[in-house]
Amino acid sequence: MNKLLYQVDDRPPLPTTILLAAQHMLAALGGIIAVPLVIGAVLKLPADQVVALVNASLMGSGVITIIQCKGLGPLGIRLPCVMGTGFSFVGAALAIGHEHGVAGILGSTLAGSVIMIVGSFFMPQIRKLFPHTVTAVVVTMIGLSLIPVAVDWAAGGKGAADYADPVNLGIALFVLVTVVGVVQFGKGIVSAAAVVIGVAAGYLVCLAMGLVDFGPVQKAATFALPQPLQYGMTFPPSGIFAMGVAYMVAIVETTGTLMALGSATNTKVGGRQLCRGVLGDGVGSACVAMLGGPPVSTFAQNVGLVSLTGVASRHVVALTGAFLLLAGLFPVLGAIVVTIPQVVLGGACLMMFAMILAAGAQMLASVEHSKRNGLIIAVSLGCGLAVSARPELLARMPAIVHEIFGSGISTGAIVASVLNLMLPGREKEALEDESNDGEAVQAATPHPVLEKKARAV
């Protein structure tokens, strides 16, 4: 059990809540705006359209974050879950955009979200494919896949002219040491706000060295209302198919992330909880598409923040959603956060992502030592790392293969699940898993929509 400063349903004092919510926003904002920026750059969209994509992503992520944390009828897992635009959709979005433009991306996003919405009805069955051994592999792969991202940020940004410059590495190391020191020696709220303190210290150093670019603040509008359907929508069959495959991969990745979040918050996540979470992802993506933004998914980096700080309050993260919504309505607010240099975020995120990896290692250590489990862990981690470290392995494969196995997380999860089904001894392990954590009872609980209808009858 993780020692938590604030439990899932705790409500910290308002000043504390604001500080901790801002910390989650810092962890998520870079990832949220990165996807629309990549889409805009690759498709060579006009600057005003890129800004509109960013604003829609922020607003949509904020609203769905609030719903996931607070719950809305059958929607929302009611855990500290931060939503954001998912990189698992980028490949499909770019392929669609090159041929059908932004209208094709949004139409395919809306139509493809049906896959995730329908898939949520089957989460009790999907949950059975994730016994403890498989879950441990997925959580470990999430950490292993995120750490290279933090390393690139710490080095100055992938492809940057000053990549791995000693100055960049020195600032990132300073932030990392600051975060570690505050977590280790700080008490109460000081320890819980370690990431904010570390980022603030790194930001001041960069400010003193003249490394902060205030250009985004000068260019950003003060206020901007959403413009739903401003691009229109088209529904190309090929685009819907590609996005549908991406949604199926997202279901696997979201399942792993939500179960990792359950582990970090000391919450048992069974079939019913996964129903709510995945349904929130699917409906959220459909809503964001109507606003004019790319699909959203559950962010794994904030799981590491929960593990690092011990703050598991869903009410704190709900306020993060409100901050994201405001950043979409007032782009200048988001632009201020964007001025934080990547090297500063890299130093802080390296610690957070490593916490996810550490959680996965702890889960692997608790797996029963047997030849069967050893094979599942070794082969699935090996395959996941293979495509993460050498993505060019899939360069000559059909597009659908690249879409499904392009992520080390999805590759590791799929391989682990298949091996768990194929190798002898699965029934025994499943029974042990059910008796250990009682999740079989939860997995048998009907989908929240069906449960509500049943009560009505």
Automatic annotation (TrEMBL):
Main location as per UniProt = membrane
This entry's Gene Ontology molecular function terms read: xanthine transmembrane transporter activity
Q: Give the membrane topology, semicolon-separated if more than one.
A: Multi-pass membrane protein
Which key words tag this protein in UniProt? Cell membrane, Membrane, Transmembrane, Transmembrane helix, Transport
Subcellular locations according to the entry: Cell membrane
Q: Which InterPro entries match?
A: NCS2, UacT-like, Xan_ur_permease
Which residue ranges does the record annotate as region Disordered? Answer: 432-457
Record field: transmembrane: 21-43, 79-96, 102-122, 134-155, 167-185, 192-211, 231-252, 316-337, 343-361, 404-423
Cite a GO CC annotation. Answer: plasma membrane
User: What name is this protein filed under?
Assistant: Purine permease
Q: Provide the species name.
A: Pseudoduganella lutea
Q: Indicate the family of this protein.
A: Belongs to the nucleobase:cation symporter-2 (NCS2) (TC 2.A.40) family.
Cited NCBIfam families = ncs2, pbuX
